[in-house]
């Protein structure tokens, strides 16, 4: 039985493609240790009862501390990404549980001061991909 060159090349391409899929960072089998156990959570941040609408956001009580807290959480690897839509902030956390995320948020002085309020939601990804920030114009 003779195998054509075209069939052999096709088989090699399929084997190569399958090996790349297994090595993909999006593959659950590629995740190891702690990363495989962590879940994603969406935190919606809205203005709280003590938000002063006569002031700019960066002039709000505890705004600087809020920004510093988010920076620390990002640098520690707890924040996957952050964004804003309308007047709502959205932060995606990687954590073990919603309680862990709530503990992160409760340490933010702007939350206890009522400048902001938040809600934690389980975040289930069904279209994985890449999100890149757009340049500010």
Q: Examine the coordinates and then state which fold CATH places here, giving the name of the CATH topology of the largest domain.
A: Alpha-Beta Plaits
The best one-word shape is globular
Count of spatially separate domains: 2
Q: Ends: how far apart? A: 64 Å
Number of strands: 4
Largest sheet: 4 strands, antiparallel
Superfamily (CATH H level) name of the largest domain: Dimeric alpha+beta barrel
Question: What's this entry about, in short?
Answer:
This protein is of the alpha+beta class. Helix content is 36%, strand content 23%.
Q: In words, what does this structure look like?
A:
The protein has 137 residues and is α+β, with helices and mostly antiparallel strands. It folds into two domains: 1-30; 33-122, Alpha-Beta Plaits (2-Layer Sandwich), CATH 3.30.70.1060. It has five helices and four strands. Strands 2-3-1-4 form a four-stranded antiparallel sheet. The termini are far apart. The model is unreliable at 7-13 and 15-32 (pLDDT under 50).
């Amino acid at each position: 039985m003779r195998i054509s060159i075209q069939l052999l090349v096709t088989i090699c391409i399929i084997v190569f493609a399958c090996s790349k899929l297994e090595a993909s960072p999006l593959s659950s089998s590629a995740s190891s240790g702690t990363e495989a156990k962590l879940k994603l959570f969406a935190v919606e941040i809205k203005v709280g009862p003590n938000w002063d609408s006569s002031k700019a956001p960066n002039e709000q009580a505890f705004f600087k501390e809020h920004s510093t807290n988010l920076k620390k959480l990002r640098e520690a690897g707890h924040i996957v990404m952050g964004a804003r839509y309308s007047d709502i902030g959205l932060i995606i956390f990687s954590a073990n549980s919603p309680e862990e995320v709530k503990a992160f948020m409760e340490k933010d002085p702007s939350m206890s001061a009522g400048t902001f309020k938040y809600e934690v939601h389980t975040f289930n990804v069904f279209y994985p991909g890449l999100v890149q920030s757009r340049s500010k114009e």
